[in-house]
Amino acid sequence: MIGVLDLTAVLCGPMAGLEGAEFIPAVRSDRELGPAAVYALRAVEALCQKRPELQLETLPFCCVSGHPGAPVSAFEKAWHLANGGPLIGPGFAETRYRRIHPFTLLTSLYNQVPAALSSKLGMTGPCHNVFEGGGNWSSLLALFRTWAQPQCLLVLSSANQREEEAVRNAALWPNAQPLEGAIAILLDAQAPFQILPNLDLPADKAERAFRNPVLDLALQLVTAFQTKQSHGRLVSWNERGVPFSLLYKRLVS
Predict the structure, then answer these.
(1) C-alpha distances in angstroms, 38 versus 26, 107, 180?
(2) pTM of the model
(3) Sorting pLDDT into bands at 50, 70 and 90, what band is 207?
(4) C-alpha distances in angstroms, 244 versus 35, 127, 137, 225?
(5) 226 touches 9 (CB < 8 A)
(6) Residue of 197, 183, 199, 220 lying closest to 2 (CA atoms)
(7) For residue 69, which of 29, 96, 40 has the smallest C-alpha distance?
(8) Can you tell me the distance from the alpha carbon of 20 to that of 41, in angstroms, rounded to the nearest whole number?
(9) Rounded to an integer, what distance in angstroms lies between the CA atom of residue 253 and that of residue 251?
(10) In this predicted model, what pLDDT tens digit does every residue of 12-57 receive, in sequence order?
(11) Where are the beta strands (DSSP E) in the chain?
(12) How far apart are CA 2 and CA 52, in angstroms?
């Protein structure tokens, strides 16, 4: 088991009223950062305001990085406005890739979130980055127990409500609620709110609305943590419909 000491959420979507979360308008890419990185920075900065004693410079951190924003649409400008034929095709690696501004290319990478945390907040401690796959919670918890003692930071971020990614979401999760943002979770081995993987998985999906493949389980964790529930089970599903689950228990009231 590992404990949750504190957490913050910065979200954009139809979940106003979620206790402990800040709701902001959808952010846009700039010359340095894609939307997912902006959300992650906001969430970690909010956590630092709650926990000014945090030593970010050396704190181990792990990022679960969902869609960074809208990289394909960002490339459209190079596709339509530059001469020399289609952007993607023979010769791309020779000259056509130069139509894409280097900063635009960086904002499309999934590892931009840990890079942004390091460069903007000075975080230089041990780092892991996991791409999407909310079902990696079991692996993450095993990693934390052996790697990050006594504390580490887990940052989940996704900007998956943008143009081409929204089309994919509608196909995979037709009933999903549109939601994006970031959640920063401070893990501590001695914290009283303990979580562990649940091996007794449900056979069928729950009827509640699915929200985001990266953030879904963490959003449930936010609710359980903030509402002072004593124990329970959190369940979500990956894009292949495979369930994964966490158990939580509050050791002291």
Answers:
(1) 10, 11, 11
(2) 0.82
(3) very low
(4) 27, 24, 8, 19
(5) no
(6) 197
(7) 29
(8) 17
(9) 7
(10) 876 655 766 788 777 776 667 888 899 999 999 999 999 999 999 9
(11) 2-12, 21-23, 61-65, 127-131, 151-158, 180-188, 193-197, 231-237, 243-250
(12) 22
